[in-house]
Design a protein that fits this description.
alpha/beta; 6 strands; about 5% strand
């Protein structure tokens, strides 16, 4: 995963065990007065022609688009090759993500989990299903997105999923996340626009590389601990005794208006709950630290090294092309980043502040539209990756034969995780 797949993902993303007041403005901030005042998550790889690294965030693109500097958008438009963490246009990505979540043939979650933990999980999912109609917005219903369908798209077939994936699923089934389902996350929007603009698209990772650490790295007792802690957090939120410490709103506000270096690196990139809590007994603190260290090593540091090497290979293959790499911002911030890997190999990589002109050999294209696009002219509701994972048609108009890939999380940032659980729109 980037954690883990999931959703973001990953993002409500992150419910932690320590409560923290929410921003009084709901995560919003005023657009800066000029381009130079905007945050920039764009880096330029100095070569002729240039290449670009852009840090995304796994949230609905409409929540951040106005805060992305014009030069970042111009770099995307000038590019002829666009690469994401996963290939968001390949149907195999969808089927592989679905398959890697499942328990071995013939096994069910009820047979795997301790009896008490299984029934707590079932009670919580029953609660979410009951509450989901009241969590959804009129705008979602107006687009044909209904609670029963959404619940089935996210949580359908949960009894056949591996516990670590169920843990990620539970972490994404919050009121805040549900209210944003249906709008493509930023990565997906860029992938849709790249296809519309006839750009060549690709990926630097394969689904199996993101799934393997989730499915095979932790022992069963660690997985049970993680699922139990996630349930305890959500049960406390339900009871009103705990407020999620880092919400999607916090993440959006930092991306748009704040210093994201610590926030993205520790949260959105991994798309996992934070299990480290000083109130835990000493032996459980040890387990929490082991899990945190494992995911940080496997899903951040090792991925950064792999992604950096593949960026270099793609640059060699496309020496005469302007390339644009859109990865979760956490891969560019913190320690042992993709940028560090590139610089260690001798490439010159500079941060590109908002307001600084980019150097392009192409004419300026028209601005990107602020609306989702689909490969088919047939109108269809904004259902994303999770829909395809369930292999069922959404209600309403018949869908086109070409599947519309929901952005894959963070699952991304992103890691496949993100893509998975936040694909229906949010995160």
């Amino acid at each position: 995963m980037h954690a883990a797949l999931a959703g973001p993902l990953l993002a409500a993303l992150l419910a932690t065990a320590r409560a923290r007041p929410q921003p009084p403005d709901g995560g919003q901030c005023r657009p800066p007065g000029s381009q130079r005042d905007l945050n920039s998550f764009l880096w330029t790889i100095r070569r002729d022609p240039p290449a670009y690294l852009f840090g995304t965030i796994h949230v609905p693109y409409t929540r951040v688009w106005d805060f992305i500097p014009d030069n970042s958008k111009a770099a995307f438009q000038a590019s002829t090759r666009v690469y994401f963490e996963l290939d968001l246009t390949d149907p195999y990505t969808i089927s592989a993500l679905a398959s890697c979540q499942l328990l071995p043939h013939g096994e069910n979650l009820q047979d795997v989990l301790p009896h008490e933990l299984y029934w707590r999980l079932k009670r919580h999912l029953d609660y979410v299903k009951l509450m989901m109609p009241s969590w959804m917005t009129p705008a979602q219903r107006g687009k044909g997105l209904y609670a029963d369908y959404l619940f089935n798209a996210i949580a359908g077939n949960w009894e056949r999923k591996r516990p670590v994936w169920v843990m990620l699923m539970v972490n994404s089934l919050t009121e805040r996340d549900v209210r944003f389902r249906g709008v493509p996350v930023l990565d997906l929007y860029l992938a849709q626009q790249a296809e519309k603009m006839k750009k060549t698209t690709g990926a630097v990772e394969q689904v199996e590389e993101q799934c393997h650490p989730l499915n095979n790295g932790l022992n069963f007792s660690q997985v049970l601990f993680a699922l139990n802690q996630t349930l305890l957090q959500q049960e406390s939120v339900r009871a009103g005794s705990l407020q999620a410490s880092y919400t999607t709103e916090d993440l959006i506000k930092h991306y748009n208006c704040g210093d994201l270096s610590a926030v993205i690196f520790n949260h959105d990139t991994s798309q996992l709950p934070n299990f480290i809590n000083t109130t835990l007994p000493p032996h459980e603190q040890v387990t929490a630290q082991e899990i945190d260290s494992y995911f940080r090593q496997e899903l951040i540091y090792k991925r950064n090294e792999r992604m950096g090497k593949r960026v270099m290979a793609l640059l060699r293959e496309n020496e005469d092309k302007i390339c644009f790499f859109a990865f979760g911002a956490g891969h560019f911030l913190g320690n042992n980043t993709v940028i560090d890997i590139l610089r260690q190999a001798g490439l010159e990589v500079d941060h590109t502040p908002a307001g600084q002109a980019i150097h392009s050999t192409t004419a300026s294209p028209p601005p990107l539209p602020l609306q989702p696009t689909h490969s088919s002219g047939t109108a269809k509701p904004p259902f994303q990756l999770s829909d395809q994972l369930q292999q069922q048609d959404p209600p309403g108009p018949a869908s086109s034969s070409a599947p519309t890939l929901g952005l894959l999380p963070a699952i991304a940032t992103t890691i496949a995780v993100c893509f998975l659980l936040h694909s229906l729109g949010p995160s």
